[in-house]
Amino acid sequence: MVTREFVTSEAFDAFIARPENESRRFELIDGEIIEKAMPNDEHGSVASTITALFFIYLREHPELRGRTTVEGRYRPTDNQLNQRLPDVTVILGGRSLVRSSAANFVPDICVEIKSPSERLKDLRRKAAFYLAHGAHALRWWCCPPSG
Question: Less packed terminus of the chain by CB within 10 Å, N or C?
């Protein structure tokens, strides 16, 4: 019988702070450290377009007191086994910017951009996680196959 050892948020913060991990991207998913693929040009273009559209909308609706982020790190309140990096997020209500470690909440809107190597099953799990922890909406933007 194999016993799985879970990594806590505190140990994860120490792991990603190591010099050898400085230019790498990781998520903590249910106590397991998962390395995220580096985004390509297409991914960056889709993320910046989505971010720009949200930014324009939020600027036109200041009453929402919202902001956008790209690949911010989020941990649900009182959850020590998860730190997620949604591709694009919208945070409403004037929450303060978190400058160190993971923000202790899940954004109101989370966007995951499907890369060609990602499985829809994994994106569905992410969607379920975000929605279960307070996100109000989640959209997937599927990048067409290159070629």
Answer: N
